[in-house]
Design a protein that fits this description.
This protein is α+β, with helices and mostly antiparallel strands. Helix content is 47%, strand content 23%. It starts with a helix and ends in an 8-residue tail after the last strand.
């Protein structure tokens, strides 16, 4: 009897040990799966936030460069007129400046000078100009010329100093001699709209100064300004990167004060895990802008969200099964087999989850570095390859070239046949560019109808090979495209910047900028052609 009681107690102890150890193992398995989930979600957030930050920085750089280029063009004029303004801004559209409302030219004057300023600019093409001075003493800022980039008619003659935010940005741009951004405010022309339709917006201003003598003295002429509505900017630049996975909020930072400009509106439910939230800061026009990125429940699929609970349930089931059968050696052995099989299945499931996570990471990296429409490299990958190419050139002593390609007539196709036809045209154009380039070259879509090609390892000074590639591009893209059975004809303007062997005077940014300028030269000289510029340490020469 004593022996039987001893075995009974040993059996009970064995069952309890199995239950305790199995439960602990189940909880540890659930914690491990949840930790893998959190690492995966954190990686997704990092990829998304990096892409959003790059998109904002790229667009901000494009805005600032556009304003600086127009400012320089105005300063180069002996007499600046309304016609000059229209010509200089004719190529600026919402495609090139997403979210922008209007580009304008603003001058400063005292209230008693308004009549004389009005007459001066009427004589220079602003025939119906009527300046309307806002209340307040001191200097006033009048909008003289304006080109609308949205559907709202320009409000020339308005006194911009009626709102302190844009007035402060104008003063800062003049004092610093560089592009400055305003704090968020409601555009003056939007203040008559219902409150629900008013958006927080911001203004970018670039000073326009002209040199008047050889000693470097300058004359201040005014400002070139760009107004942008926050929600429009978010929808046209950052929404494509945010999608339904995250919510993005753009805010202006002034010391400890943070003013929200606009946010995306995902349909998913926001997750509360604070460690998945991401915040980045980008400086644009002397103004700090904060990007807050919050995850939604779409970040992790429903099936994967239930994996920790599934792992716990399987583990507890196996544990209870083992404890219930522990009093019989035969049944215990069978349970061990079943438990082992279940554990193997659990391990395999975890391996599958980890494999899917690794695959998702690879897909995210590919998405972060490639254009979703054409599958070409995007600007981030192109910039990375260009930086590597410039470093490699110091060893190889071989020439390299950057080609900047802009389609002529694409907007007419997009507007006339629809965005679907426009997308087909971009995809087919991308394929032709890949054929024109060499197999070692990288072809990228920078946005809209703009493409770039990086060609390394060119022989000699690179001019002969670069000219051959550019010629193939021009001839290939002028061949009609078959879009849904309809022939469509466009052309292209190509700018080429060559960096010769041994040159180290120019970096990646200058090289791309030179190719862009060469493309503009091709565009203004008749389109359907290419223009080459050489970066060899000497001033650029157009050929």
């Amino acid at each position: 009897m004593k022996v039987r009681g001893r075995y009974r107690r040993l059996g009970t102890a064995l069952v309890l040990a199995i239950v305790v150890v199995g439960s602990l193992g189940s909880w540890l398995a659930m914690a491990q799966v949840r930790e893998v989930q959190q690492r995966h979600a954190a990686l997704l957030m990092e990829h998304n936030t990096d892409a959003i930050e790059r998109a904002l920085a790229n667009e901000a750089s494009r805005y600032a460069e556009t304003l600086s280029d127009v400012s320089a063009a105005i300063a180069a004029q002996t007499t600046f007129t309304h016609t000059d303004f229209e010509v200089m801004t004719s190529r600026l559209t919402r495609d090139r400046l997403p979210g922008a409302s209007a580009i304008g030219f603003v001058v400063a004057a005292e209230p008693d000078e308004a009549a004389g300023v009005q007459q001066y600019w009427r004589e220079r093409g602003a025939g119906n100009l009527r300046l309307r001075t806002a209340e307040g003493a001191g200097e006033h800022y009048y909008l003289i010329f304006s080109r609308a980039l949205d559907n709202v008619a320009p409000d020339v003659g308005r006194d911009v100093s009626a709102a302190e935010e844009p007035a402060a940005a104008l003063r800062l741009a003049r004092a610093r001699g560089s592009v400055a951004a305003s704090h968020p405010y409601v555009l003056l022309k939007d203040r008559d709209l219902p409150a629900a339709e008013q958006q927080r917006a911001f203004l970018l201003a670039a000073p326009v100064s002209r040199q008047i003598d050889r000693n470097g003295a300058t004359e201040f002429l005014g400002w070139i300004t760009l107004t942008t509505r926050g929600s429009d900017f978010i929808e046209e630049t950052l929404l494509a990167y945010a999608g339904e996975l995250v919510k993005v909020t753009l805010s202006a930072v002034d010391g400890s004060s943070v003013a929200a400009v606009a946010s995306t509106t995902p349909t998913g439910v926001l997750l509360r895990e604070s460690r998945l939230h991401r915040t980045r800061t980008v400086t644009v026009g002397e103004q700090d802008w904060r990007i807050d990125v919050q995850p939604t429940d779409s970040l992790i699929s429903g099936t994967e969200r239930r994996l920790p609970e599934a792992a716990l349930g399987i583990g507890l089931f196996v544990t209870l099964l083992a404890g219930g059968l522990a009093d019989s050696r035969r049944r215990a052995l069978r349970q061990v087999d079943q438990a082992t099989s279940a554990l193997r299945h659990d391990i395999e499931r975890r391996k599958e989850v980890e494999a899917r996570l690794r695959e998702s990471e690879d897909q995210l990296r590919h998405l972060a570095l490639h254009d979703t429409l054409t599958a070409l490299a995007n600007r981030a990958l192109f910039d990375e390859r260009l930086a590597n190419g410039l470093r490699a050139q110091q060893r190889t002593r071989e020439a390299l070239a950057v080609f900047f390609v802009d389609l002529d007539g694409f907007k007419a196709v997009n507007d006339g046949l629809g965005h679907s036809a426009g997308d087909q045209l971009l995809v087919e154009a991308a394929r032709r560019l890949e054929v024109c380039a060499r197999s070692s070259d990288i072809v990228a879509r920078l946005g809209g109808d703009e493409f770039a090609i990086l060609a390394e390892g060119l022989t000699g000074d690179g001019a002969e090979e670069a000219e051959a590639i550019a010629g193939r591009i021009v001839r290939s893209l002028q061949t009609p495209f078959d879009i849904d059975g309809q022939p469509v004809t466009v052309s292209c303007s190509v700018g080429v910047a060559i960096r010769e062997p041994g040159s180290d005077a120019y970096g990646a940014e200058q090289l791309v900028h030179t190719a862009d300028e060469a493309m503009y030269a091709a565009k203004t000289s008749g389109k359907n052609r290419f223009v080459m510029s050489r970066h060899d340490g000497a001033p650029a020469q157009w050929t």
